[in-house]
Design a protein that fits this description.
Blueprint lengths: L1 E5 L11 H15 L3 E7 L2 H7 L4 E10 L2 E12 L2 E7 L1 H4 L10 H15 L9 E5 L5 H8 L5 H4 L2 E6 L7 E2 L3 H6 L10 E2 L2 E3 H8 L2 E4 L2 H6 L3 H4 L3 H6 L4 E3 L29 H12 L9 E5 L8 H6 L1 H5 L4 E5 L4 H13 L4 E4 L4 H10 L2 E4 L9 H7 L3 E5 L2 H6 L13 E3 L4 H15 L2 H13 L5 H15 L1
Parallel strand pairs: 1-2, 1-6, 2-5, 6-7, 7-11, 11-12, 13-14, 13-16, 14-15, 16-17, 17-18
Antiparallel strand pairs: 3-4, 4-5, 8-10, 9-10
Helix pairs in contact: 4-5, 5-8, 12-16
Length: about 475
């Protein structure tokens, strides 16, 4: 089976969030299952500047986009046994940053069309195009409009994965004729509430629709989570499934992580205490091995549950804990945590920047990892913390609900602490339950063992994807 992932991010070439991690690691696991998997990416400026000498140039061709005839250069290179193809057009992609440009609707329409045109020139005959997020949502749309009478393209099947339904690719209706070149008869595929909605078009036209966790697949049928797309999702429920993401076990491994002060594993977990002491020293915290250390790593945004944390932060600190935060985002939250770091000097550290190396040291040095998200399609941080033997405290939403089982002292089962409602005091209660377990060594060691033993790799998920691919190619 031949599968072409179409994405605007993939580690190590481009990453702003979980999408880059998924497309950078899932193909390798699918290859182990016997599939031939390759990836198509835009050739961004940052990629071109770093990797161009290692790339093979295939050919140049033109892509029709509305009334435009656009240049396209096709390149490729192999990384970790996966072939990556790159769509080159400096007008669209030779810029700083991946997103947030005034013409993003046109840029990614071009990328989708150029991807389909590239199939004529690559040495690969895909059975399935696996598209991700709104930036590649026009691939199934174009297949059902521009290419529906072409015998070669008729055999292609599409999977579209929603990683975060909040970002949909919404533009004025004038883009239909000016950029997309879609006739009035087919325009309804994309129209929603008087605008063009790229994600809506993909949901309607793809052969199978997936999200990144089973719980999120259910949640996006509700108005609270769907950002307006619940009716369209409900109409297409027959092709929807949720498959929980995994993490790259090579990239996230405390036994091999070069960023750590001391490497460790499940069987040498005592060395985790050394990482905690070094982290305290690095961040100017009091060196206190008995003080529970709570960590947070991620974007500082409302939907990540930051208002819950700020509402009861002083109550959390009453429990003689230390608190470390790493991340950037809304100014109000950055200011809040910087102020708390000054107020609780020696007990709170706030780093309003991002460093992958420091993130690793927090995963390794913290005792509890707080993730109180209002919405979390899958979440990777809770899986990484499990991998490092750090206990997640999460809200039961999306992938957090699917990956974290509440610890039960009576049975010794469970790998974390959960709370259900969007309520600051319920979150505070969950933190206190985690601290109670921390202060009971017998339960804490069992909980850590369960965390280390949790399988968050791509193995299970890859099997589910392979079953899905086989289903639509029968």
């Amino acid at each position: 089976m031949n599968i072409l992932f179409v994405s605007t991010e993939a580690v190590p070439f481009a990453k702003t969030g979980g999408l880059g991690d998924v497309v950078g690691s899932l193909p390798s696991e699918l290859i182990k299952k016997g599939a031939d998997v390759r990836v198509m990416l835009p050739l961004y400026k940052s990629i071109k500047d770093e990797y161009a000498p290692s790339m093979i140039f295939h050919r140049a061709y033109t892509v029709d986009l509305g009334w435009r005839s656009c240049y396209c250069g096709l390149f490729s290179m192999e990384y970790n046994e996966v072939t990556f193809y790159f769509i080159d057009n400096e007008q669209y992609f030779y810029r700083d940053g991946y997103y947030g440009h005034f013409d993003d609707g046109e840029r990614f329409a071009y990328f989708s069309k150029a991807t389909l045109e590239s199939l004529k020139y690559i040495d690969f005959d895909p059975d399935i195009l696996h598209c991700n997020e709104w930036q590649s949502a026009l691939v199934p749309v174009f297949l059902k409009t521009h290419y529906r009478d072409n015998e070669y393209y008729q055999k292609l099947r599409t999977v579209f994965t929603i990683h975060n339904i909040e970002y949909q690719g919404i533009y004025g209706k004038e883009i239909i004729s000016d950029v997309l070149g879609i006739n009035k008869k087919d325009a309804g595929i994309l129209m929603m509430n008087g605008d063009v909605n790229y994600m809506k078009g993909a949901i309607v036209t793809c052969d199978r629709l997936t999200t990144v966790s089973p719980s999120y697949a259910k949640e996006i049928t509700y108005p609270f989570y769907s950002h307006g797309l619940h009716t369209i999702i409900e109409e297409n429920m027959y092709k929807l499934s949720g498959i929980l993401n995994g993490i790259d076990y090579k990239a996230y491994n405390p036994y091999r992580d070069k960023a750590l002060a001391v490497k460790y594993s499940k069987n040498s977990r005592d060395k985790k205490k050394i990482n905690k002491a070094r982290l305290q020293e690095e961040l100017g915290l009091d060196t206190a091995s008995d003080a529970p250390l709570i960590g947070m790593v991620g974007r500082l945004a409302e939907h990540k549950g930051l208002p819950l944390v700020t509402a009861v932060f002083d109550r959390i600190m009453e429990n003689q804990v230390q608190f470390v935060l790493l991340g950037t985002g809304q100014k109000e939250f950055e200011d809040f945590f910087r102020n708390k770091a000054a107020e609780y000097k020696g007990r709170v550290a706030a780093i309003t920047a991002f460093s992958a190396e420091l993130a690793s040291r927090i995963y390794a040095g913290a005792d509890l990892f707080l993730m109180p998200s209002i919405s979390e399609p899958c979440g990777l941080a809770q899986m990484i913390s499990l991998r490092y033997g750090t206990i997640p405290v999460v809200r039961a939403t999306g992938g957090l609900k699917d990956s974290i089982e509440p610890y039960n002292p009576a049975t010794g089962k469970g790998n974390g602490v959960r709370f259900d409602s969007i309520n600051a005091h319920d979150m505070l209660d969950a933190v206190k339950r985690g601290l109670d377990l921390y202060r009971q060594p017998e339960h804490w060691q069992k909980l850590m063992t369960n965390a280390f033993n949790t399988d968050c790799s791509w193995k299970r998920s890859a099997v589910e994807y392979m079953s899905l691919y086989e289903l639509i190619t029968l």
